[in-house]
Specification:
The protein folds into two domains: about 5-150 and about 330-370, Aminopeptidase, CATH 3.40.630; about 160-305, Gcn5-related N-acetyltransferase (GNAT) (Aminopeptidase, 3-Layer(aba) Sandwich), CATH 3.40.630.30. The chain is built from 14 helices and 13 strands. The protein has helices at about 10-15, 15-25, 35-45, 100-115, 130-140, 160-170, 170-185, 200-220, 230-245, 280-285, 290-305, 315-320, 340-350, 350-370; strands spanning about 5, 50-55, 60-70, 80, 95, 120-130, 145-155, 190-195, 250-255, 260-270, 270-280, 310-315, 325-335. A hairpin with a 2-residue loop joins strand 9 and strand 10. The chain is globular.
Amino acid sequence: MVEIKVINSIEGFKELEPAWTALIGSTEHIFQTWEWNYIWYKHLGKEYDLNILLFIDGGKIAAIIPLVYSKKGHFPWKRYEFMADFVSNYHDIILSSDANINNTILALKDYISENFGKFDYIELRFIPQESLMIKSLNASPLNLIGFDHTPVHMINIDKAFDDYLVKDVPREFRQDIRQQIRKLLKRGSLDYHQCKEDVELQEVLTEFFRLKVESLKKIGHRSSFFEETKFQEFDRELYSSLLKNNWLYLHVLKFDDKIIAINCDIIFNGHVYCHESTYDCNFLKKFSPGHIVRYMEIENAFSLRCKDVDWGQGDLSYKRQWSNTKKETYRFYIFKDKPFIRRYYLNKLRPSLRAAYVYYTEQILPKIRKASSRVFITGSKTPAP
């Protein structure tokens, strides 16, 4: 029988590092590591309460679901969500190689039933399509709503770089990038390199924040979290930790010794994850420095024989131009029961939000379910017809 132990203190979180790290060996995603989640909670988790679920089977930790309690959102509902939600490309259950996923989900159901008064729902999003959790959730007796989320564009590295450019990248797009490189080389010196020392890393991050804020203001953002001290401290400690573990894939492009583009990416288990990037606005229209540094970084990933380059969430045009494949992530809302959901939440919502909720559940949601064979019906074990 699987039992659940809850970790809700920072001290318990720290002590969990060895056991957590021992389970990570089978995962493909950097976003499930103890370092990623702990550093996020240390700097950006002050508005959340820890609720890390440990699934104990035979006296050993069989699985971990790292949740936090949040009151944030458009609706006045108490919810649990994955830790480090908005800074991560993916979330998933952390599962030992010999664990039974179905028994774990059944234990989660019992936990929800016993503790439902403490929260209104659980939101699990950015779950990759290859996750064992998706099939198990859909086949479980949990009352849930699940649906497709945004696509994730990727570069599958299965050929030589030159062959990839010819077969998978639009001709005009790749020719334009090469032309911009030639223009810059005619005007001065161009330097591209990977950051591998912490002293340089901290200097580069100072320039990264300046350029990022400047570029966001250029397109109409009056302020951004890149200006906030707590977010900058999070990035600095996170990237230092990634560098120490040889997981940082940060590249800098300089023109005449001046930084014009920075890609703060990650390499983990052979996968390259595009995370944060910026560029000098003064070079944008004439030379496309963001595309140039990305071109060089992708070429380097091919030379390292990585498995793929993952662009993260979103269906932006530049991601489509680089990519030769894609996958999807899924989102699930877990509730106690459907009548309870409707009665409880409609009573709590303000009139305007109540009307929006009714419109969504009665007009929009049925259309979504009908349009996709991969949409799950609330409380059902099978996809919608």
